[in-house]
Structure to design on (543 residues):
């Protein structure tokens, strides 16, 4: 049913739940499994270049550790996980990569790191569901 | 006089709270400190004192110095003409537009209108830098050009602030001559100080740079100019040295953000009156629109001329309409020197704060560039997504060729 699955992974509890579902589905259908992590550069009212560099460095280090753990988790279930990191806007990149990579399922957590702003501006999940070119599984946790 | 320790504890407590909120919300600490200052000023009745004013002034000067030092000197040299053209237009269009608007529509006096024009002429280098990093443009010539133009834009604001209200007498001549000589010698002398006495616990190189900033600040103020003017120029002059001495810059940054800038930003928020904000809401919206429209008219066409794709041009230009630090510095200069009143200060600072948020929101909602060129982060060690590698390689090659 599913040949290529893309999971949005930012390390949040929602993303961890999405990853578990994605691994299980990939194992069940023998599908190829990819994870996409997005480094979001803060632009809201940023006052110094140092703040941006600092944020980028923190997220890069954090994601690198989390992706390694995710890779191990998938391996334990006999699934190979391909991890990719990009910079930009999570919703836009998830939709774009799902389209360009011809994925047939996108798995995302119901609430990731949109946090307080998500309440006002909409979460990544809202936007992905609205624009994705393939089926989307939104995992509640 | 209130107990100095109680006052200090309260202010630093607010600064600590602002830091936590800024991390939690992903907003700049400067912005949150201003907002906390507004709340504290209007609810706790927070007051300034002579020593608080001194610390706040040091904060503004060191912050301006660090802002100037963030420039990439090589990029400025390589794109001198283009960055001067875009940066000058980015300063002049909103300066003239906002000055005209506040003078002829809002009915402010000429000096007040100049302060209005200056406060709204700035751009946020940091916001533009964030966009450049995100789209990968920071590694390209056009990205470096736009960033250099942002520095030129703010240099225009700082120069105008320092020269519009100065007394044109002997003091100004002394200030200009001494500043020029200092800037000429600064690189060599600083290198000598670092080589001879650098990296000691007593931090002689930090004290030397503070000496330069405070001495030129003194000369600036006796000429009725602004201490941030020489500070920005000193930052630009020292930027090359900071690229080779990152720890020195980091130590100065720690000093500034922990001990000095909180006083400045909290104080900037303190004078914003909530009743005045409510009564001036129409003016605030108008000022923000004037800033955005004039910035678009001034910068937009030039970014197209210098090679930005149309959508990226709109996005970048909108983000060049942002501003915070130099906007509040200009407004506070006007208030401290009795040029503008508290209601006008409130309108300007609120418009400046709005300009730190609204253009970004508009840009991200309607003008987000397609991210085909988004580079993979250095942390990425895995293979790219299937079907994407060929395009990425092609795009990278195009960028390198260009």
């Amino acid at each position: 049913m599913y040949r290529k699955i893309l999971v949005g992974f930012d390390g949040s509890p929602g993303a961890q739940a999405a990853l578990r579902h994605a691994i299980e589905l990939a194992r069940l259908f023998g599908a190829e499994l990819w994870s996409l992590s997005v480094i979001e550069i803060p632009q809201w009212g940023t006052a110094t270049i140092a703040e941006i560099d600092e944020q980028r460095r923190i997220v890069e280090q954090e994601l690198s550790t989390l992706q390694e753990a995710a890779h191990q988790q998938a391996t334990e279930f006999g699934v190979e996980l391909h991890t990719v990191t990009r910079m930009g806007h999570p919703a836009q990149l998830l939709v774009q990569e799902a389209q360009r990579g011809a994925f047939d399922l996108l798995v995302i957590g119901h609430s990731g790191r949109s946090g307080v702003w998500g309440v006002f501006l909409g979460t990544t999940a809202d936007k992905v569901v609205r624009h994705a070119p393939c089926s989307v599984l939104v995992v509640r946790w | 006089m209130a107990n100095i320790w109680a006052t200090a504890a309260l202010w630093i407590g607010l600064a600590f709270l602002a830091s936590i909120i800024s991390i939690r919300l992903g907003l700049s600490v400067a912005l949150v400190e201003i907002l906390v200052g507004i709340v504290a000023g209007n609810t706790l009745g927070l007051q300034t004192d002579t020593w608080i004013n001194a610390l706040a002034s040091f904060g503004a000067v060191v912050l301006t110095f660090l802002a100037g030092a963030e420039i990439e000197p090589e990029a400025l040299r390589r794109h001198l003409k283009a960055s001067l053209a875009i940066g000058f237009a980015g300063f002049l269009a909103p300066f003239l537009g906002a000055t005209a608007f506040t003078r002829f529509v809002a009915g402010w006096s000429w000096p007040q209108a100049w302060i209005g024009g200056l406060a709204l002429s700035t751009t946020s280098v940091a916001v533009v830098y964030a966009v450049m990093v995100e789209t990968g443009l920071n590694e390209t010539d056009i990205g470096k050009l736009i960033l250099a133009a942002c520095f030129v834009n703010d240099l225009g604001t700082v120069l105008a602030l320092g020269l519009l209200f100065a007394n044109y007498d002997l003091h100004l001549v002394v200030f200009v001559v001494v500043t020029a000589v200092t800037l000429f010698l600064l690189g060599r002398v600083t290198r000598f100080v670092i080589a001879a006495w650098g990296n000691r616990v007593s931090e002689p190189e930090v004290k030397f740079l503070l000496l330069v900033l405070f001495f030129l600040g003194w000369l600036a103020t006796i000429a009725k100019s602004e201490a941030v003017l020489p500070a920005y120029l000193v930052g630009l002059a020292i930027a090359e040295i900071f690229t080779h001495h990152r720890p020195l810059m980091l130590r100065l940054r720690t000093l500034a953000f922990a001990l000095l800038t909180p006083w400045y930003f909290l104080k900037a928020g303190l004078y914003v009156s909530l009743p005045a904000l409510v009564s001036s809401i129409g003016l605030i919206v108008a000022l923000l629109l004037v800033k955005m429209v004039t910035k678009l008219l001034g910068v937009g066409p030039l970014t197209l001329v210098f090679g930005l794709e149309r959508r990226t041009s709109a996005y970048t230009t909108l983000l060049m309409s942002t501003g915070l630090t130099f906007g509040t510095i200009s407004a506070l200069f006007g208030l401290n020197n009795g040029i503008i009143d508290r209601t006008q200060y409130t309108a300007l600072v609120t418009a400046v704060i709005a300009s730190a948020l609204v253009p970004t929101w508009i840009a991200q909602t309607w003008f987000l560039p397609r991210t085909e060129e988004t580079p993979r982060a250095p942390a990425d060690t895995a293979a790219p997504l299937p079907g994407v590698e060929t395009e990425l390689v092609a795009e990278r090659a195009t960028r390198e060729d260009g």
Summary: The two ends of chain A are 24 Å apart (CA to CA). The helical segments of chain A are 13-29, 49-76, 90-100, 115-121, 124-131. Chain A has a mean pLDDT of 86.
